[in-house]
Structures are given as structure tokens and as C-alpha cells.
Amino acid sequence: MTLTEMAEKPKRPLSAYMIWLNDHREQIKKENPGIKVTEIAKRGGELWRALKDKSEWDQKAAEAKDKYTKLIKEFEANGGSKEAPAGRKRNKAAKKPAVKKSKKKAESEDEEASEDESD
Fold this sequence. Notes:
By secondary structure, the chain is mainly α. The protein is built from five helices and no strands. The protein has helices spanning 16-31, 37-50, 55-77, 92-95, 103-118.
């Protein structure tokens, strides 16, 4: 693959639960007509926790992770960065605006500065 084909960093693989939920979402909707999206996820979580044998889904998740690992290695070998692309997933410190001084503090600093100048 060329660098232009690999311009986007591969997406992280789905967990076993998400693979299972994607396969069972329509069935949950059929069994619960008119169910809301949030309730589908809630019901899916209940069914997933009650599921005894999750090995099929764990295996699919492991395969997806192996595929992702290979894609990431190719991506990095072709010049891709290990960091998230610009504009995506910034850390919280980058989001915070600069801290503004309180009005009182700014006034007291102004007074101190004017006193220093008059000395």
C-alpha cells in the first residue's frame, strides 16, 4: 500500500461485546418493537452479561485485534504517525482556555505597578 492509501490511521478494533451487539441488534429490535437506541444498548448489556459462552465473540475480537495490529504496523512503516491526526482526540489541557485573572487581582496588580512607577 502507498502512503496515500494509508493516509488515515486504522480504527481500533471492536470489543467482543460490540461485535456481539452488532450481530444481535436487529433481533433485539424485533423482540422489543419501538425500543429506543439507548434501551437497545441497555438490553444488549443485560443479554451479554447473561451469556454463558462468549468464546465465539472473544475469538472474533482477537482476530480483529490481530488484523488491526498488522494494519498499524503497515501504517507506521509507510510513514504514518503513532499520534492521533490533528484535530482528533486532543488532551484535556489543550481544550482549556487560558486562565483569566480575576478583576480584583488585575486591579491590585495595576495598583502595585503604578506604585512602583511613582517611586
